Automatic annotation (TrEMBL), chain A:
It is a multi-pass membrane protein. It is found in: Membrane. Coiled coil: none annotated. This is Biotin transport system permease protein. Its main location: membrane. InterPro entries: ABC/ECF_trnsptr_transmembrane (IPR003339). It comes from Celeribacter persicus. Keywords: Membrane, Transmembrane, Transmembrane helix. The chain crosses the membrane at residues 25-50, 62-82. Belongs to the CbiQ family. GO terms for cellular component: plasma membrane.
From TrEMBL, chain B:
PANTHER family: BIOTIN TRANSPORTER BIOY, BIOTIN TRANSPORTER BIOY-RELATED. Pfam families: BioY (PF02632). Its main location: membrane. GO terms for cellular component: plasma membrane. Signal peptide: none annotated. InterPro entries: BioY. It comes from the Bacteria. This is Biotin transporter. The chain crosses the membrane at residues 30-48, 55-72, 78-100, 112-135, 147-171. Keywords: Cell membrane, Membrane, Transmembrane, Transmembrane helix, Transport. Belongs to the BioY family.
């Protein structure tokens, strides 16, 4: 099943409204980027640490947020060190880490369904020309389709492994895409038959 | 937009998400493994066309932003949009639209060669034109250095462009989607 990156909890940050969290995150990132001063960065890092503390999350969770970008961060650090000075290299890398951790904090404390509800609430107030029900339909369909296509992919891979082709990307992709397109016709017919259109 | 269009958009969003778990292919002499996810971006444009392909990638990015780990390596959440490679995510959207637009333009005489060219221009040209300035901006390194760092990914992307082109031509023959009313 599809799970989000939410970490359960009952802190102030978990209970805050998603729109507020997004607003604060946006403000945070802008100020850390616009006010280029080491003191601002130190304050920013302290703020992130405070946020993780309030949410009851540890350094491990903060590291999880940075880990996928670790290689890129290292390359940037080395490039800066080579082009500029050690202090600037540390500054740029730490600033990126602060942004990554702050953004991840919002993701950790907000369920994907809360965001979805927020988007749908926004849509309900949107002007008439916005195809609200179609956007809502597309979003809910993806939730169902991801496990389905993953299962289809496993089937295709099994079949191609029997032929010794499981490392051949073309042999994996073509059957998967054609099956996907066939599914589209069936699902669309099923939806139309239930008069949802 | 018919119900079928909506279904196709959602399916390609899901397909691109699933491609994150494709077994990565390593080429000899290349330091970086090739992940299939940007192949999904090329296919969304090349199979569905500009409008539906672009919407399908936009939907993927929205779902990633609200916290679903749909990018390769299980990445997701808001932090990927604030990382140094965030420009490439915007690049995905523009690449899908560009590839879709070109595929629609050259649909009647679409061959493996022209499809490959389309994927290279859109999936490499447009993608890097957005992604590299993004790295340069976020990391404060000069454009040329960011470019050098990204060059290692280009051979893999060419392989993906070839695969995407082969799929586009096969799909055009067996199950065409572009060319019908969008």
């Amino acid at each position: 099943m599809l799970t989000d990156l939410y970490i359960p909890g009952d802190s102030l940050l978990h209970r805050a409204r998603p729109a507020w969290k997004l607003g604060v995150l946006f403000l945070y990132c802008t100020s850390v980027f616009v006010i280029s001063h080491p003191l601002m960065l130190a304050a920013g890092l302290a703020l992130v640490a405070l946020g993780y503390g309030i949410a009851g999350l540890g350094p491990r969770d903060a590291f999880t947020a940075i880990r996928p970008a670790l290689v890129v961060l290292l390359i940037i650090f080395v490039a800066q060190l080579w082009l500029e000075t050690l202090s600037l290299a540390a500054y740029v890398t730490l600033r990126l880490m602060a942004l990554l951790m702050a953004a991840a904090l919002v993701t950790y404390t907000t369920r994907a369904s809360e965001f979805t509800e927020g988007i749908l609430a926004l849509l309900s107030r949107a002007p008439k020309w916005v195809p609200k029900d179609k956007i809502a339909l597309a979003m809910s369909l993806v939730w169902r389709f991801i496990p389905m296509i993953r299962a289809q992919f496993d089937e295709v891979r099994e079949a191609q492994r029997a032929r010794g082709l499981e490392r051949n990307m073309l042999a994996l992709v073509v059957p998967l895409v054609v099956r996907t397109l066939k599914t589209a016709d069936e699902v669309a017919e099923a939806i139309t038959a239930r008069s949802l259109d | 937009m018919t119900t079928r269009d909506i279904t196709l958009i959602a399916l390609f969003t899901a397909l691109t998400a699933v491609m994150a778990v494709f077994p990565p292919v390593t080429l000899p002499l290349l330091p970086v493994p090739i992940t299939a996810q940007s192949l999904g971006v090329m296919l969304a444009g090349g199979v569905l066309g500009a409008k539906r392909g672009g919407l399908s990638i936009l939907l993927l990015l929205v779902l990633v932003a609200i916290g679903l780990p749909l990018l390769s390596g299980g990445r997701g959440g808001l932090s990927v949009f604030f990382g140094p490679t965030a420009g490439f995510l915007l690049g995905w959207l523009l690449a899908a639209i560009a590839i879709g637009w070109m595929t629609e333009k050259f649909w009647d005489g679409l061959s493996f060669v022209s499809a490959t060219l389309i994927c290279v221009i859109g999936g490499i040209g447009v993608m890097y034109a957005v992604g590299i300035p993004g790295i340069s901006l976020a990391a404060g390194v000069p454009f040329s250095k960011a470019f050098m760092g990204s060059v290692t990914f280009i051979p893999g992307d060419i392989v993906k462009a070839l695969i995407a082109a082969a799929v586009m031509v096969t799909v055009k023959k067996s199950y065409p989607i572009i060319g019908q009313a969008a």
